[in-house]
Amino acid sequence: MAVEGQTKEQKERSAVVKRARQSQWPAIPMDEALKAIETLARKFQPESKCFPVAALQPGRVLAEQIFAPEDVPRTRTSIKDGYAVIASDGAGKREVIGFSTAGGPSNQTLKPGQCIRVSTGGVIPAGADAVVQVEDTELLKDDGENELVIKILKAPSVSQDIREKGSDVKLGSLLLDVGCEMGSAEIGLLNAFGIQHVEIYRKPRVCVLSTGNELVEPYMPQVPLGHIRDSNRSQLLALFRGQNFKAIDAGIALDKVETLEYAISVASQFASVIVTSGGVSMGEKDHLKEVLQDRLNLKIQFGRVWMKPGLPCTVAHGSIADREVVVFALPGNPVSSWVCAHLFVSPLLRFSAGLSRLHATKIRVKAAEEIKLSPRPEYCRAWIDMEKGGDLPVATLTGNQISSRLMSLVGAQVLLILPQKGQISDGSKIKEKIEAGEILDAIVVGPI
Amino acid sequence: MAVEGQTKEQKERSAVVKRARQSQWPAIPMDEALKAIETLARKFQPESKCFPVAALQPGRVLAEQIFAPEDVPRTRTSIKDGYAVIASDGAGKREVIGFSTAGGPSNQTLKPGQCIRVSTGGVIPAGADAVVQVEDTELLKDDGENELVIKILKAPSVSQDIREKGSDVKLGSLLLDVGCEMGSAEIGLLNAFGIQHVEIYRKPRVCVLSTGNELVEPYMPQVPLGHIRDSNRSQLLALFRGQNFKAIDAGIALDKVETLEYAISVASQFASVIVTSGGVSMGEKDHLKEVLQDRLNLKIQFGRVWMKPGLPCTVAHGSIADREVVVFALPGNPVSSWVCAHLFVSPLLRFSAGLSRLHATKIRVKAAEEIKLSPRPEYCRAWIDMEKGGDLPVATLTGNQISSRLMSLVGAQVLLILPQKGQISDGSKIKEKIEAGEILDAIVVGPI
């Protein structure tokens, strides 16, 4: 058969005959895959920039240590609304010689038998060594406008209701550390000290590319037979954006080696982390591993992982046009790509964001029902109920866990970590299932 | 004494003589305060608007039920890369008559002894009733380009590796419900069905006002004696923004009744929820309750709550210039205002955002150390450690819990709910403290 006589489609199909009928990639265990990710992560050190505190939003990550530029409080202040007194005067009458409010300090000096009215946060006047709250006093004499004499009902003790200078924060003490995630309290703290600018980490950028001849844009009015709308891209973009990363839409690439090579090369100009979905399994159109390895000359760190859902999950690392990149080639099934994004991509991005903690939080939960174990370790999507009996949250599977079933992700709050069948054995018996009520580790992936 | 002869300052101080020396407001119990908030919340029903799915970001809340506009999959598709076969043909040889890839369906009909190559997601051709994965086949004959004859190694069963039409989602079934918070999975799902627009709830708006003569803007280069920088405002703005609400900066108001009245009136034009801090305690400059009740004619729902930190927390409701408003007048201490914002303001805003769950998540934790109980129920800030022994997270207090100490909020992940001293008694003994290792409820307030 003359090669000249072949149509383009025929040429492509010719590869089918030569394809491997078993995957050439060993399925590595999860802990090995995660270790590879951690090693890779260290190559993508976070970058920092100077940022105005006035524009800081929750979720940014601090890239410097912040030390207190002054004592808090700066002077002795009152904890209560009441009277600054000399403690050794005891209970009884006091002449009121003035007032010291927050924002209106007194410059008088207290002598025995005298007191000065103070409000919460007001500066303690010279000579005073205690505050008596207004509730513990009586007004004895006034001139119709001002208090002249009051009675202290209970003898005060020295330092009572006084915030000493530097008692909350000492000048020079560490306020916030590198890697600290800015929340409302941290932003308030920076403002309390009048800090105007801080060094924060840049948000890591990640490019999201969908691959597949069968994909159409979700806004297309008609979807031809055999085609589906591309939901992976919007899903992954939202996933990364929800985690405070900068996610860039790289579109859809057709299943052709040249197209894939070009699309990934373009993506590498926008981000050093590239996430694709589809094209990594055993299908005749699954060219991604070949493209990554042979055309882009990246080193495939792993080409399969012994887990579910996401067996063909692939990670490659290297340089494209002198830019260091990592490509996460996730499986095309929407559930697999979502789970693998959480397990593999997010930890690397978290590191690159400057967060001190690489992995998502794990909690312990109780299985609501019996769950059959799979030959591979499995990450099942589950809802949790905090109120349902006992001290631990109760986890219920989000229905059928088949990897095409996008509905199994809806509202999912955790990924239950299930061991593979038979992995845990008690003596002679092989473990086939998780019993209802059994305690499991779970990775938090949604609002709990 | 002629009133004409008084300076303005003297006139103001004249009120000091007449001030109550005990709070006139009963300190209501927490459950009563929360019930009042829930009743109020129902007056601030969420509003919805039509929104393009392409612009949806995580955190928005759905205001309509979404039903599946089609079956998923729309036709029978393959779960694996392999061959569509007739199951009753059993194991053995098959003639390969064509191919059906995702995006390239076949229009051939299978006859006994024949098979059609399929890829994952590819349409199952007419006549076929099972898929055999490529790993379970051998190539027997080819013409150098195309597969001609293969061998099925293991007899397939009917329906094997076929996703039936509608097996993931049935046409017309409920996909997402009202009040559902949009996450990556939900956004992906809408795109998978080609849904272009959804009705979502508007983000509730909240105006944040600081009050106090002692306050200066955080960007001021000098802070005069007796003054402090206003950190409450940036803190509360960040707190509400971090929870996906629209928070508006209403500035600082001085402690004068006219100023406070004006500032709150202006704020009411921008938002129906107004949050102030400061001016609600027993200080001579604490005019807020008077302003809310007597000048703005709002009804004070409660003027003190029997809890800590935040005893003088005040909530008022009514109309300003025909706009229904609720004013949360929080205490001025940064810790009290932060805790009260979480406990009282956020639930009302969550309701107004359309979220089905009013209150933040509670988890159960183990106390890392002994904690002394206060006469009031207390909400202590704590860090949690998920790894530290046992199934429950271990909670450690964030240092000294005094309400002025902003540092006690840094990194706080939960509010430990402590009962008041003596509230729980076992027989004759009064409970004075929480023992190390005791299990407590905790409200989640930060990333865990």
From TrEMBL, chains A, B:
Example of a GO MF term: ATP binding
Keywords: Magnesium, Metal-binding, Molybdenum, Molybdenum cofactor biosynthesis, Transferase
Cited InterPro entries: MoaB/Mog-like_dom_sf (IPR036425), MoaB/Mog_dom (IPR001453), MoCF_biosynth_CS (IPR008284), MoeA-like (IPR038987), MoeA_C_domain_IV (IPR005111), MoeA_C_domain_IV_sf (IPR036688), MoeA_linker/N (IPR005110), MoeA_linker/N_sf (IPR036135)
Biological processes, Gene Ontology terms: establishment of synaptic specificity at neuromuscular junction; gamma-aminobutyric acid receptor clustering; glycine receptor clustering; Mo-molybdopterin cofactor biosynthetic process; postsynaptic neurotransmitter receptor diffusion trapping
Biased composition (Basic and acidic residues): 1-15
KW Metal-binding (keyword) present: yes
Catalytic activity: adenylyl-molybdopterin + molybdate = Mo-molybdopterin + AMP + H(+); molybdopterin + ATP + H(+) = adenylyl-molybdopterin + diphosphate
Entry GO terms, CC: cytosol; dendrite; postsynaptic specialization membrane
Any one Pfam family match given in the protein's UniProt record, by short name: MoeA_C
Ranges for region Disordered: 1-22
All copies of domain MoaB/Mog, residue ranges: 207-351
The protein's annotated pathway: Cofactor biosynthesis; molybdopterin biosynthesis
Superkingdom of this protein's organism: Eukaryota
Cofactor: Mg(2+)
SMART domains hit by this protein: MoCF_biosynth
Function: Catalyzes two steps in the biosynthesis of the molybdenum cofactor. In the first step, molybdopterin is adenylated. Subsequently, molybdate is inserted into adenylated molybdopterin and AMP is released.
Family note: Belongs to the MoeA family.
Full protein name: MoaB/Mog domain-containing protein
Species of origin: Caenorhabditis auriculariae
